[in-house]
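Lecture 7 notes: from sequence to structure.

We start with a single chain of 305 residues. Read the sequence below before looking at the structure.
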Amino acid sequence: MNRKNALYGTLVTLAGAALWGLNAVVSKYLMGRGIDTMWMVNFRMISAGAVLLLFAFIKNRRGLFDIWKDRASVIRLLVIAVFAFGLCQPTYYMSIDYSNAGIASAIQQTAPVFVLIYVIVKEKRRPTAAELSALVLVIAGSFLIATHGDMRALAIHPAALAAGLFSALMCALYMTLPSPLIRRYGTFETVGWGLFIGGCFLAPFCRLWNFPAQWDASMVLGMAFIILPGAAFAFALFLYGTSIVGPVRGGIYNLFEPVVALAASALWLGQGYHAAELFGTAAILAGIAIMTAGKENETEGSEDL
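Now the structure, written as tokens:
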């Protein structure tokens, strides 16, 4: 990969991560305008899934339904749709609703830690020094965000913390389960079907048919943003950029998402942050960066061999 392609891939990947961060802030704004959180999540999932499927159809119309021709692939897709998408998205937005976009995004960044714990248990080994350092930083960061350093008190709403951690766990499934399908059928096809089916699964529980009664221009623009730039375009840009720079660097660049969410929340929504929340977020990002950089070094070493 030459320097020009690396720079291009980096910028595209960062653009996708930034759109996810802005999506969280716009969603928080819409919640403040009275839009039901679960309805918004459900509508966004189905709409963004449909847009991605449209992209897939334009790109390769003959292969759009190939994923439905293999039983094992269908089972994996349904698991992804219901759990990795269907439960990850609502709990993430619930965390935003009970806290704010920056804190919810920071908590969700703990997802790679769940993946790491799973790998360590599966491989029956001890964590490396880098992995152990990452775990300590992430746990310390989560502690600071949750308590502001006071062990006797919970500084954020318990529902925000619980929903954020559960969303991170489901996000860990999203990071691991879809890979075989993406390699076989394509990114747009896998993610598009996953979002669309997950949204259909949630529809009866979220009462998708109950559209908000009051709409104005800002609410329409906000909904358009979280569906197109905040979901469909963000997925497209991030995954395309990751295909250039690689999944390891893509994981590092994804840390740009909570940074954007924190900054946009402060500048646009006037959201204030406790110093402990900022230090906690920095600790989580540092921990994930150390863990991801460690994986990159292992990969580079194995490639040299």
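Residues 111 and 172 are 5 Å apart (CA to CA). Keep this in mind for problem set 3.
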